[in-house]
Amino acid sequence: KSDILVQEYVKFGSLDTYLKKNKNVINILWKLEVAKQLALAMHFLEDKGLVHGNVCAKNILLIREEDRKSGNLPFIKLSDPGISITVLPRDILLERIPWVPPECIENPKQLSLATDKWSFGTTLWEICSGGDKPLSALDSSRKLQFYEDRHQLPAPNWTELANLINNCMDYEPDFRPSFRAIIRDLNSLFTPDYELLTESDMLPNMRVGALGFSGAFEDRDPTQFEERHLKFLQQLGKGNFGSVEMCRYDPLQDNTGEVVAVKKLQHSTEEHLRDFEREIEILKSLQHDNIVKYKGVCYSAGRRNLRLIMEYLPYGSLRDYLQKHKERLDHKKLLLYASQICKGMEYLGTKRYVHRDLATRNILVENENRVKIGDFGLTKVLPQDKEYYKVKEPGESPIFWYAPESLTESKFSVASDVWSFGVVLYELFTYIDKSKSP
Asked: Is CATH 2.80.10.50 the classification given to domain 13-195?
């Protein structure tokens, strides 16, 4: 049986999403108030000798919105930290730079009260920038380099605020201020002087600091999708090893996000995961009008589950489309589809890939004038010294589409894909009529 943690429902969601969604209406006072409430929560934990270990805007929940008419201020709560950084794999720790402090990258067992002070500094930077993610455009090795060179995040123009962030993010853990001192510094910012400031004074100045890290503060890597923003809409297909779902990727939580197709494994054995990673790498390397577009990947917390994100093609598989729209599809249209499949397969051949599963069920329809090849789960790369590939591992095979040499000798090549294409032509021109199946 699995244990389930039940928490209160929070209407306005996580702070980072809210900040991005309301970037143009949130003012300096709002940001200072939220930062102060977070500092008070952290002071409470510090007083009890408790370490949170994962302070970030994503883990802050907005319970109440500001209501300027009634004078109600925004109200936030700190959420649970999730899996402790002391047990997370190193690659995830590196991804979490600059929220995880330098000493914990070196040795995660150094988790301490000082850890939360560093993370608070990063989170304060997030709040100031309106929900932007610092260093999100850098890969793990460059993030590590950022720490090794002892860089600081670009500071806001507001000197006192910049000093507070830098003090929290001191590379010497012992020099970081207590949360009592942080609250005092935040309170001192609530002076008549702040009314003379403009919003831009709170925004980090991207022209200074982080020298040599150009591009570090651009948007996140567009091929990395966050699990929490994927909203399930419906199942598109299910096989023995995986399933494909239609989801909306909705980072602003307002139902305006893009609809995508998400493939995930049913059973994550090491072997299946390895094959899935290979499939992802293959699709990632392909750019052709008649091949389904790769959009990215999504890892669950702790990287236990991997998902492949692809473009969503609204008309489903060519097999189903042929049966449903038989009356509308004349031979001219079928020849157009055949030609497009040919072009996609020719492109695959130039990359030395053998698809091994070409069938109308794996061709997807974008619109009535374009089809695309999908499902590269069985695809293999031809060795440089041979024009065929011998499959050693047994597995379920689509034998009715296989060439004779594939069935008798487990040999696959561009020529065996041509055989499968012949079967696809037969499927096309019989409109998948079972009575005409050989």
From this structure: no
> Does 333 show up as a binding residue in the annotation?
no
- Concerning whether 289 is annotated as a catalytic residue, the answer is no
| Start-end of H helices in 150-261 | 159-168, 179-189, 199-202
Return the C-alpha torsion angle 348, 320, 426, 283, nearest 10.
Answer: 10
How many residues are listed for the chain in this entry?
438
**Which residues does residue 294 pair with via DSSP β-bridges, in sequence order?**
310
> Is residue 411 a contact partner of residue 388, using CB atoms and an 8 Å limit?
yes
Local structure of residue 196 (DSSP, 8 states): G
Query: What is the spatial distance between Cα 348 and Cα 99, in angstroms, rounded to a whole number?
Result: 42
Per-residue pLDDT reduced to its tens digit, 241-296: 789 999 999 988 888 899 999 999 877 778 888 889 999 999 999 999 999 999 99
Domain boundaries, the chain: 13-195, 224-311, 316-430
Helix (H) or strand (E) holding 38: helix 28-47
Tokens for 181, please give them.
């001192």
Q: How far apart are CA 374 and CA 384, in angstroms?
A: 24
Residue located via tokens 């239609």: 246
The per-residue DSSP string of 312-327 comes to --TT-BHHHHHHHSGG
> CA-CA distance, 266 to 300, in Å (whole number)?
14
Q: Name the architecture of domain 224-311.
A: 2-Layer Sandwich (3.30)
Class of domain 316-430: mainly alpha
In angstroms, the CA 135 to CA 143 distance is 7
Query: What tokens does 379 get?
Result: 């695809």
Catalytic residue (one of 16, 357, 375, 417): 357
For 376-433, write each residue's pLDDT tens digit. Answer: 988 888 777 667 666 766 555 677 888 778 777 777 888 899 999 999 999 999 998 8
pTM equals 0.71
